[in-house]
């Protein structure tokens, strides 16, 4: 599980080429990556929720930034935003599980993000 999240974190960092403002989006993606790793290693529900909240905040900021690769073409932006929203939804579900005291289930829920990442990176990266 640990290797999976480290890999996912590196992949998010490496994919930071899609941004309207590369520094801001790259920073947000890096925060998402780091917080996901920290959430997966959390030893308490509170620690998990703190990290997943920071992850969600970074994802919300990323959702409003159009990738520069598109050169202002907004035709793909709604799909990109939909993908980020699905990631946010998974993180929110995981947070709710942690609030219920189901830390292991919350950590397991995070595995869904790898599939979403792979699918949406193929479409929009």
UniProtKB/TrEMBL annotation:
Q: Which UniProt keywords apply?
A: Signal
Q: Where is the signal peptide?
A: 1-19
| InterPro entries associated with the record | Cyt_b562 (IPR009155), Cyt_c/b562 (IPR010980)
Top-level division of the source organism's lineage: Bacteria
Coiled coil ranges: none
**Record's family?**
Belongs to the cytochrome b562 family.
Name the chain's protein. Answer: Cytochrome B562
Which species does the entry assign this protein to?
A: Haemophilus haemolyticus
Query: What is this organism's lineage?
Result: Bacteria, Pseudomonadati, Pseudomonadota, Gammaproteobacteria, Pasteurellales
């Amino acid at each position: 599980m640990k290797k999976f999240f480290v890999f996912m974190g590196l992949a998010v960092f490496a994919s930071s080429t899609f941004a309207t403002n590369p520094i801001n989006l790259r920073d947000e993606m890096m925060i998402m990556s780091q917080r996901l790793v920290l959430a997966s290693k959390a030893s308490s529900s509170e620690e998990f929720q703190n990290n997943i909240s920071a992850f969600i905040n970074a994802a919300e900021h990323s959702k409003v930034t159009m990738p520069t690769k598109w050169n202002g073409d907004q035709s793909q932006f709604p799909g990109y935003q939909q993908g980020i929203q699905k990631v946010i939804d998974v993180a929110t579900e995981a947070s709710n599980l942690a609030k219920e005291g189901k830390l292991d289930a919350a950590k397991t829920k995070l595995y869904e993000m790898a599939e979403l990442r792979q699918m949406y990176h193929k479409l929009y990266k």
